[in-house]
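Tokens as discussed.
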């Protein structure tokens, strides 16, 4: 379940410039970006997912494939449909596997991953309430995961390729397979794309932890975190939540560190991650900002790097701390705030000594933090 869209702005492709942009704990940012001709990338990804959903649906006339997908959907949270289809050994299965591998390649291209992510498409059962009917042999429908929180209906396909309109807010009694993207895998691959792009643009920038004191370094640790509850389509899967930690690096340039928060997949739940979010040894001033976002799948990682670096490059070190939350949000044009990526929450002026509960600026969540000293062995 994704977190929510708060009506801020998303990303546009700008000229890639030099700013420190490194990772904390293997995270990854995400954003949508314009495709050639001005059409947003999310249209391309959603269209490919919809094509894949219809292909899977019409392939369910193959009894071997139908049985294997049913077994997999009942046994696992999600499965790789291309690999599953290829292993059936039937002509229908092999043909479907070929089409889905092509879809994976096109999705990777649209997301700016240069084919580094491998298979991204996944299939899962839409809701636990559908298990009994699927186990009894009820004929399933297939639908692409919704890319918009505001969708009232979604289109699903049956084995004859016929379209069925479903309520996006209320799970049907009939079993439905949902075609989605493995966001954890995409985010991991996207981070590598970002890191490499910024290393090439600013090779002399200090890397995370490069100038730590020999005895260790001070950090800020998230002890607990909670986001407000919201109602979202059953057809949407877990979102990949990440935070952008911004401040001035030791070289006087704006730096943005990314922090992955994959555990934040249910609103209204308090999590206790004990996760480090800021390494203070890499910052010039004793203040930093945090912008929390989530990615629902329609993301171009190269465009994210381009937009952020171009926007933040204009901010110069004036010998004092400058809040950067607004600069990050202002890099996100109105035309791109559909559903992906969503702004979730932000925190201003986090200091090394900050502790206790910190409410977010938008009132959509809070986190409890504490100073933590990372000591060398």
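Sequence:
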């Amino acid at each position: 379940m994704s977190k929510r869209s708060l009506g801020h702005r998303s990303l546009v492709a700008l000229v890639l410039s030099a700013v420190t942009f490194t990772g904390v704990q293997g995270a990854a940012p995400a954003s949508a970006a314009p495709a050639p001709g001005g059409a947003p990338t999310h249209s391309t990804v959603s269209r490919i997912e919809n094509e894949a959903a219809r292909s899977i649906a019409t392939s369910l006339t193959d009894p071997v494939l139908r049985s294997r997908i049913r077994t997999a959907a009942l046994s696992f949270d999600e499965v790789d449909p291309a690999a599953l289809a290829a292993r059936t050994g039937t002509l229908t299965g092999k043909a479907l596997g070929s089409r889905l591998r092509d879809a994976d390649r096109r999705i990777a291209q649209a997301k700016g991953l240069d084919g580094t992510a491998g298979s991204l498409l996944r299939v899962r059962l839409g809701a636990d309430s559908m298990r009994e009917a699927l186990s009894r042999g009820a004929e399933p429908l297939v639908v692409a995961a919704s890319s918009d929180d505001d969708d009232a209906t979604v289109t699903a396909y049956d084995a004859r390729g016929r379209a069925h309109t479903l309520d996006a807010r209320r799970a049907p009694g009939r079993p439905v397979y949902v075609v989605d993207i493995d966001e954890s895998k995409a985010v991991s691959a996207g981070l590598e794309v970002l890191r490499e792009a910024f290393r090439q643009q600013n090779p002399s920038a200090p890397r995370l932890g490069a100038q730590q004191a020999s005895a260790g370094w001070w950090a800020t640790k998230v002890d607990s975190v909670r986001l407000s509850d919201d109602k979202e389509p059953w057809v949407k899967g877990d979102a990949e939540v990440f935070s952008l930690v911004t401040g001035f690096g030791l070289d006087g340039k704006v730096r943005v560190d990314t922090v992955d928060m994959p555990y934040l997949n249910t609103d209204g739940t308090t999590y206790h991650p004990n996760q480090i979010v800021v390494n203070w040894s890499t910052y010039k001033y004793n203040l930093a900002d945090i912008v929390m976002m989530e990615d629902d799948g329609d993301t171009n990682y190269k465009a994210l790097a381009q937009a952020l670096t171009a926007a933040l490059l204009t901010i110069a070190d004036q010998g004092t701390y400058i809040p950067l939350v607004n600069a990050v949000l202002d890099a996100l044009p109105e035309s791109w705030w559909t559903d992906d990526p969503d702004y979730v929450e932000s925190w201003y002026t986090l200091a090394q000594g900050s502790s206790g509960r910190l409410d977010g600026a938008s009132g959509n969540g809070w986190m409890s933090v504490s100073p933590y000293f990372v000591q060398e062995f």
